[in-house]
TrEMBL record:
This protein's name: G2/M phase-specific E3 ubiquitin-protein ligase-like
Listed SUPFAM superfamilies: Hect, E3 ligase catalytic domain
This protein's encoding gene: LOC113094076
Domain HECT as annotated: residue spans: 55-235
GO molecular function, one term: ubiquitin-protein transferase activity
Record bears the keyword Transferase: yes
Keywords: Transferase, Ubl conjugation pathway
Location of the active site: 203
Transmembrane regions listed in the UniProt entry: none
Length: 235
């Protein structure tokens, strides 16, 4: 879709791998993989409904099977959904977004296409505004120690599978990835002494972590709470 916004649907090539419907993808792959006229005939019969809907009226042969399969894939992915795509594009045009996208396609891509980048401990740590007690107080000292535990916990979550960074993110935001424009409101990290387990407010993006004196206890209680928290789904 992003390529279509940038170049126009007629200038975008579609592969059978781009089709998300497994049955349709399988039908087109059968056409591509046919080695004999008999195999091709069987594949064409299986895809008869798709071929009819696409308005394809050219006889499919071993010589043109690849071109035909790609034409059908292009129709299924792009032409079949052309009307809603045009409405979406018109909406972007009215706000000036389409012009910006076409003039700066590389810079705009991250706003439309999720980056294939794994979360890191630094990504999660840098999300937070940290709320401390008064500097110099006993509570502040205990919170600084717990903050170091939190940083170690994120490093462990990046490497180990007991609790992942995505699990941590879901626990306090409901999302398993960081939105392109970030979170609003900005996530806050607070400290609590009234509970040994972390507490989250996913509406306000607030994570309250328990103050502990020992890292092993901190990690155990964080793991227990996060592993037993699923139930509200993901945003």
């Amino acid at each position: 879709m992003y390529e279509c916004l940038q170049k126009g649907p007629d200038n975008v090539k579609v592969k059978t791998e781009d089709i998300t419907d497994e049955e349709t993808k399988s039908q087109l792959q059968s056409i591509l993989q046919a080695q004999t006229d008999s195999q091709l005939q069987d594949a064409v019969e299986q895809a008869a409904s798709l071929i009819s809907l696409a308005g394809h009226n050219v006889r499919i042969t071993l010589e043109n099977k690849q071109e035909t399969a790609l034409d059908l894939a292009h129709w299924y992915v792009l032409q079949r959904t052309r009307a809603p795509f045009e409405r979406f594009r018109d909406g972007l045009t009215s706000l000036g977004v389409l012009d910006a996208l076409q003039n700066y396609p590389v810079q705009s891509k991250c706003l439309f296409v999720k980056a294939e980048k794994a979360l890191t401990a630094n990504d999660v740590e840098n999300l937070f505004q940290i709320i401390h007690s008064e500097r110099g107080s006993n509570a502040f000292q205990a919170e600084c120690r717990t903050l170091a535990f939190w940083q170690d916990y994120l490093q462990d979550a990046e490497i180990e599978n007991n609790v992942s960074l995505e699990d941590v993110l879901v626990f306090f935001t409901g999302c398993d990835s960081i939105p392109a424009l970030g979170f609003s409101p900005k996530p806050r990290l607070e400290f609590i002494t009234c509970s040994r387990f972390p507490v989250a407010n996913t509406c306000e993006n607030i994570l309250r972590i328990p103050v502990h004196a020992v890292y092993t206890a901190f990690r155990s209680d964080m793991d227990f709470a996060i592993r037993n928290s699923p139930g509200f789904g993901r945003a």
